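Query structure, 446 C-alpha cells:
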C-alpha cells in the first residue's frame, strides 16, 4: 500500500470511528438508564461483602482502606441494596433464583448478627456479625439505619410473599425481623423517638429525632409496627414538634411549607428528599403539614437553580452539572447544600440521579453530560463515582453504599414505580399512614 492509499485508509477509519462515537452519544434515554442501573447494581452484587451478602460501607477502587474497614457493612446502605437486588431481578441483570439466594444469605446474617431491642447498629463486621462502633458512644442500636433496612426488607417480603414455598418462607423470616424491632421502646419514656441506644452508654448519645430531616421513614414504620407501635401523638409531638415543623417560606421563587433541621437558609442536602422516599411513595402523600411531592420537588428545583445561578462561581456548575447532597468532599465528608457555607464546589452525582422522579428533564441532562462528556473522570466499575470537584480538579475513585443505592432505586421508581408499589402494598404501612392522618387515595393509585 502506497503512502497516499495508507493516508486515505486512516482518514476513512477515523471518519468511521467518529460516526460510531457519535452514534454512541445518541443513545436513547431508556438505554442510558439501563446502563446506569446495571453498572450501579454491581456495587450491591459483585461488590457485596461475601460472607454476609450485605453492602460494604465503601469501596475504594485503589483497594486502599486506611482504617481497615473493607469488610465493614452498612445497615442502611444494605436496605437500599436489597431494593437494588429486586431491581436487578426485574431488569434481568440476575435471575430470580440468584436474587432469592442472595436475599436468603442476607436474612440469615441479619437473624444471627448483633441486635439491640430488635434494632441493628449503624455498622457491622460483615464476617462476624458483630457491631462496629460508628462513634465512641454509638456502638449499639441505630433506629434510623434500621428503618432504612426495614424499608428495603418489606419490599423484599412483598416481592417474594406469593412465590414458591422457599420464597414464602423467606418472606416469613423477613416478617419476623420486622416485628422484632421495638420501636416504642426507643421513646425512652417520652413522646419522641431516639436515634441511638448503647449497651455500654445507654442513652448518652441523647439524640431525640425531631423533623424535618432524613428520618421520616422511621416514624412511619414505628406507627405501622404490628407489635411495637407508637401512638400517633409521638409523630405529631416528636417529629412534628407540635406543629412547629410548619414554616412557610420560599427560595429561588419556590414555596416551601416545612421548617428543616440545621442551618440551611435556602435548601437542604437532597438526600433528605430521597432516603425516606425510596419505598414511601411521595406522589399524593399529604398530611396536615405539607404535600410531600410538592415539597420534595421544590427542594430539588432550588438545588438545581442554585447550581445554575452559581453565586460562588464554582467551575463547571450549570444546567448539565448540578446536585448538592451529603457525600465525600474535599474536606472529608460533608452535607453539601445550596448556600454560601455548605456549597464547597463539590457535585455528587447521586443528588441529581436520585432526584430523577422529581426533576426528570434536569436530571437526564446532567446524566448525559456526566456519561458522555466526563465519562473517563466519573465512571467506573460500579457506576458514577461518589463526588467530584472541577474547581479543585478532584476526582476520587470512591463509592459509598448510601449514595449508590438511591440512584438505582429512584431511577427504577421513575421508570416503573417498582419499589414504591411494593412498599405501599404493605397493609400495615397503609394502616400506619392512616393512623398518622396521611391521605392515601392518591398514593395507592400511583
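Result returned for the query:
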Amino acid at each position: 500500500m502506497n503512502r497516499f492509499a495508507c493516508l486515505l485508509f486512516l482518514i476513512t477509519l477515523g471518519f468511521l470511528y467518529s460516526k460510531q462515537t457519535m452514534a454512541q452519544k445518541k443513545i436513547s434515554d431508556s438505554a442510558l438508564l439501563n446502563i446506569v442501573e446495571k453498572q450501579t447494581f454491581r456495587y450491591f452484587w459483585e461488590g457485596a461483602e461475601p460472607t454476609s451478602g450485605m453492602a460494604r460501607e465503601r469501596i475504594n477502587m485503589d483497594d486502599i482502606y486506611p482504617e481497615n474497614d473493607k469488610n465493614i457493612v452498612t445497615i442502611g446502605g444494605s436496605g437500599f441494596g436489597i431494593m437494588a437486588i429486586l431491581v436487578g431481578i426485574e431488569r434481568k441483570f440476575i435471575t430470580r433464583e440468584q436474587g432469592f439466594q442472595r436475599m436468603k444469605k442476607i436474612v440469615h446474617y441479619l437473624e444471627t448478627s448483633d441486635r439491640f431491642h430488635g434494632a441493628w447498629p449503624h455498622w457491622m463486621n460483615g464476617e462476624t456479625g458483630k457491631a462496629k462502633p460508628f462513634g465512641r458512644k454509638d456502638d449499639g442500636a441505630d433506629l434510623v439505619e434500621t428503618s432504612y433496612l426495614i424499608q428495603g426488607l418489606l419490599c423484599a417480603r412483598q416481592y417474594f410473599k406469593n412465590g414458591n414455598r422457599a420464597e414464602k418462607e423467606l418472606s416469613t423470616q423477613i416478617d419476623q425481623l420486622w416485628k422484632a424491632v421495638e420501636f416504642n421502646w426507643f421513646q425512652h419514656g417520652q413522646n419522641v423517638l431516639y436515634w441511638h441506644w448503647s449497651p455500654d452508654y445507654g442513652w448518652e448519645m441523647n439524640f431525640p429525632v425531631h423533623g424535618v430531616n432524613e428520618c421520616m421513614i422511621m416514624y412511619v414504620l414505628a406507627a405501622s409496627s404490628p407489635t411495637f407501635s407508637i401512638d400517633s401523638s409521638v409523630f405529631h409531638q416528636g417529629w412534628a414538634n407540635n406543629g412547629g415543623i410548619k414554616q412557610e417560606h420560599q427560595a429561588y421563587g419556590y414555596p416551601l411549607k416545612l421548617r428543616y433541621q440545621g442551618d440551611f437558609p435556602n435548601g437542604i442536602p437532597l438526600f433528605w428528599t430521597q432516603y425516606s422516599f425510596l419505598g414511601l411513595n411521595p406522589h399524593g402523600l399529604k398530611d396536615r403539614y405539607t404535600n410531600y411531592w410538592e415539597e420534595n420537588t421544590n427542594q430539588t428545583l432550588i438545588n438545581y437553580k442554585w447550581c445554575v445561578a452559581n453565586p460562588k462561581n464554582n467551575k463547571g456548575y450549570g444546567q448539565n452539572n448540578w446536585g448538592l447532597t451529603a457525600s465525600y468532599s474535599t474536606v472529608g465528608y460533608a452535607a453539601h447544600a445550596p448556600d454560601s457555607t455548605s456549597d464547597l464546589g463539590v457535585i455528587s452525582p447521586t443528588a441529581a440521579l436520585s432526584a430523577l422522579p422529581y426533576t426528570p428533564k434536569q436530571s437526564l441532562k446532567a446524566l448525559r453530560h456526566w456519561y458522555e462528556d466526563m465519562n473517563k473522570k466519573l465512571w467506573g466499575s460500579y457506576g458514577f463515582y461518589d463526588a467530584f470537584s472541577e474547581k479543585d480538579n478532584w476526582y476520587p475513585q470512591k463509592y459509598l453504599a448510601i449514595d449508590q443505592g438511591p440512584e438505582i432505586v429512584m431511577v427504577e421508581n421513575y421508570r416503573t414505580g417498582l419499589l414504591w408499589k411494593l412498599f405501599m402494598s404493605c397493609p400495615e404501612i397503609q394502616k400506619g399512614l392512616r393512623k398518622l392522618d396521611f391521605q392515601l387515595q392518591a398514593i395507592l393509585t400511583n
